[in-house]
Design a protein that fits this description.
Elements (H helix, E strand, L loop, with lengths): L8 E4 L5 H12 L3 E6 L2 H13 L3 E6 L5 H15 L4 E4 L20 H29 L2 E6 L12 H21 L4 E8 L5 H16 L9 H12 L10 E4 L7
Parallel strand pairs: 1-2, 1-4, 2-3, 4-5, 5-6, 6-7
Helix pairs in contact: 1-2, 1-7, 3-4, 4-5
This protein binds NADP nicotinamide-adenine-dinucleotide phosphate.
NADP nicotinamide-adenine-dinucleotide phosphate binds next to helix 1, helix 4 and helix 6.
């Protein structure tokens, strides 16, 4: 049986580890040729090696999503290699502890930490979408998935910049879906709950027991759980799905 993404080409940011890597591996297993982008060349190269070992086709690209020049080169490298861009997963992101914002209430966030969070998690997604939408309009369609978060759906004490960035991603997603529906471009967001990656190690170490008590299925999600949703959203099976947010959170937000 043909894979869900057979014959498609894809670009994934933040694909050097975590959710991005798991998604790159699944996309390749489902038949896509994958441009694996990350700011660290080593991470991207490792993901490509894993894909190649499994018999898939991939290309490593080094790009910082906060740099417009990097983003433009990233999209053109993917298109030069594969001829077109059918699917894009804008997933690169950072957490509060990575910018010195962990544990800080709204008025206590350092300004540079707030700026950096918005630059990576929100403006980075917009810069990627801008370049991808240009290409997808030229070729007559495509599917974009942005990584938001359950933090894009409600407030979380001491996470204001992260929460604001992810609410922004949801807003960008909905707006672009409206604007580019007539171009055959679908735009959706995935909203992961608590997923076992490097990003959640710090939070789980600080308040893991409290978080676990709030997850109805009583376990963290795995990166593969997000990858499955993104793969479906990028596939033709989701042809009528656009402009929506898709939680994958073990019922955390169901209550
Ligand atoms: P992760 O393991 O820390 O992976 C994040 C990836 O993004 C890393 O490969 C990182 O590169 C890359 N990255 C960071 N800044 C970048 C930049 N400026 N340019 C290019 N790449 C950059 O985290 P993850 O858990 O997989 O997170 C992936 C996405 O899911 C993020 O958007 C995150 O906010 C979102 N999310 C995660 C969870 C969760 O529970 N894990 C929940 C909700 C949403 P380096 O390796 O070089 O740092």
């Amino acid at each position: 049986m043909a894979g869900m993404l057979e014959g498609k080409t894809a670009l994934i940011t933040g694909a050097g580890r975590g959710i991005g890597r798991a998604t790159a591996l699944l996309f390749a297993a489902e038949g896509a040729r994958v441009a694996v982008a990350d700011q660290m060349a080593e991470g991207a190269a490792e993901t490509v090696a894993l894909i190649n070992k499994a018999g898939g086709q991939a290309l490593a690209i080094t790009a910082d999503v906060t740099k417009p020049g990097d983003v433009a080169s990233m999209v053109s490298a993917a298109v030069s290699a594969f001829g077109r861009l059918d699917c894009a997963f804008n997933n690169a992101g950072i957490a509060g502890y990575q910018v010195g914002g962990a544990g800080k209430k709204t008025a206590d966030w350092p300004e540079d930490a707030f700026d950096r969070m918005i630059a990576v998690n929100l403006k980075g997604v917009w810069l990627c979408m801008r370049a991808e939408l240009e290409q997808m309009q030229k070729q007559g369609g495509g599917a974009i998935v942005n990584t938001a978060s359950i933090a894009g759906l409600f407030g979380i004490p001491t996470s204001s910049a992260y929460v604001a960035s992810k609410h922004g991603v949801v807003g960008l997603t909905r707006t672009a879906a409206l604007e580019y529906a007539e171009n055959g471009i679908r735009v959706n967001a995935v909203c992961p709950g608590f997923i076992e990656t490097d990003m959640t190690k710090d939070t789980m170490a600080r308040r893991g027991a409290q978080i676990m008590a709030g997850i109805p299925v009583k376990r963290m999600g795995m990166p593969q759980h997000i990858a499955e949703m993104v793969c479906w959203l990028c596939s033709d099976r989701a042809a009528y799905v656009t402009g929506s947010t898709h939680t994958v959170d073990g019922a955390y937000t169901a209550a």
